[in-house]
Amino acid sequence: MQKKSLLLIVFVILIASIFIYTHYLKNLTSHKNEPQRVTVTTQRVLQKDATAYIETIGTVAAYSTVNIKSLVDGQLLKAGFTGGQFVQQGQLLFSIDPRPFQIALQQAQANLAKDKAQWLNAQLTLQRYKKLIKQGYVAQQDYDTNRANADALAATVKADEATIANTQLQLSYTNITASINGRTGDILIQPGNLVKTAEGATLVTINQINPIYINFTIAQQYLPLVQQQQTFKPLLITAYLDKANKSEQGQLTFINNTIDTTTGTVQLKATFANADHLLWPGQFVKINLPTISLKNALIIPTQAIQEGQKGSYVFVIRTDNKAYYQAIKAGPVIKEGTIIEQGLKAGDKVAIDTQFLLTDGTPVTAIPAK
User: Fold this and answer.
1) Domain 54-62+210-293 = CATH 3.30.1490.20
2) Pair type for strands 46-69 and 202-219
3) pLDDT digits over 273-309, tens only?
4) Can you give the pTM of this predicted structure?
């Protein structure tokens, strides 16, 4: 009796084990066939009025730059300014020893006086010969010789006058003045040195920084927007100088006529009054260029946008908690994200991370972004 009871217990245990194992295999198979859920962070498509800005880095450049050089040879006597000083147009910058040019001028004036006296004498002689030739007292050849001599002396007088004018010009070059208003750089040749025009050495460089330029580039796809806005009135440009967001306002004044084929960008230039001299040549600044203002624009986080062979796309999370591929047409990037021109509507829920784990129809666990 005990033996039968023991066999019955063993049989019951065996049947239960088979049932449990079969149920386990069934559950295992069903889990293998069910796709694994992916946890994604989502955000709703925002709709609001927005102004699109292009943000880029610009380089400050002088409005004009002049390299001051000497037009005559000579010893540099003195500088009328200090390096780094603001100078006005016409202000004396350098003096070159004028004595050699003064002596040359005196010599040229003396030559003119001598040649003019000879010319006047030749004219008087020619007038006498003109009367005498009519009376037959002077040969025609002698008259012609005196006339040629008078003409030659007249030409010599004109040459002397030109020499004097040139020498006076050379003498004026010994005082070197500023040709523009601006800030000077370092003095590159100190007083006491000999200056030679053949060497073409720069004495000092002057940068005009009031007004001043900022050069920057934008991607070629933004060029039509900028050109369209520029036709109505000059676009206002904001230049941010540092992390404290000190800024200067200027106007777009130049769009280059060629797109750089290596970078796909076009060069632009803005002019700033720079009254407080906050902008400095060579300085890097952040440029904020408005391109277009839109009513009820659709905006999503830029990181939600993916790029594929067919263009831009996002993953939209629908009510069945699955991610679906959605092609879009992305517009300008603004502070809040990217403006979407086609493919989405207000309130759509898009994935903003872990997109590399998603395919069309992937089950997801959606977590709203903070």
Assistant:
1) no
2) antiparallel
3) 999 999 999 999 999 888 777 889 999 999 999 999 8
4) 0.65
